Amino acid sequence: MIKAELIDKIASGAKLSKADAGKALDTTLNSIKVALKKGQKVTIVGFGTFSIIKRKGRKGRNPRTGEVITIRAAKVPKFKAGKALKEAMK
What we know:
This protein is of the alpha+beta class. The chain has helices at about 5-15, 20-35, 85-90, and strands at about 40-45, 50-55, 60, 70, 75-80. The longest helix is centred in the first third of the chain and has 20 residues, at about 20-35. The radius of gyration is 18 Å and the shape is elongated.
């Protein structure tokens, strides 16, 4: 499913216009990004939890040349599915 299809589903399910559904989705996603950027967890009960983890720096290889390179430490987003979402997949 792509974003446009998700907006269609939101619009029909909530009886909103596609423009309003798009704004609602964009606002939701932006709110999650802002919270993660501040280092906060975002928990949606029944769906899952978004968080940020710190990945340590490490050595890697350039696949083209085989040269050893240093991969910098980074903060990366993580998602852990909630119980209800896991159960829905069975």
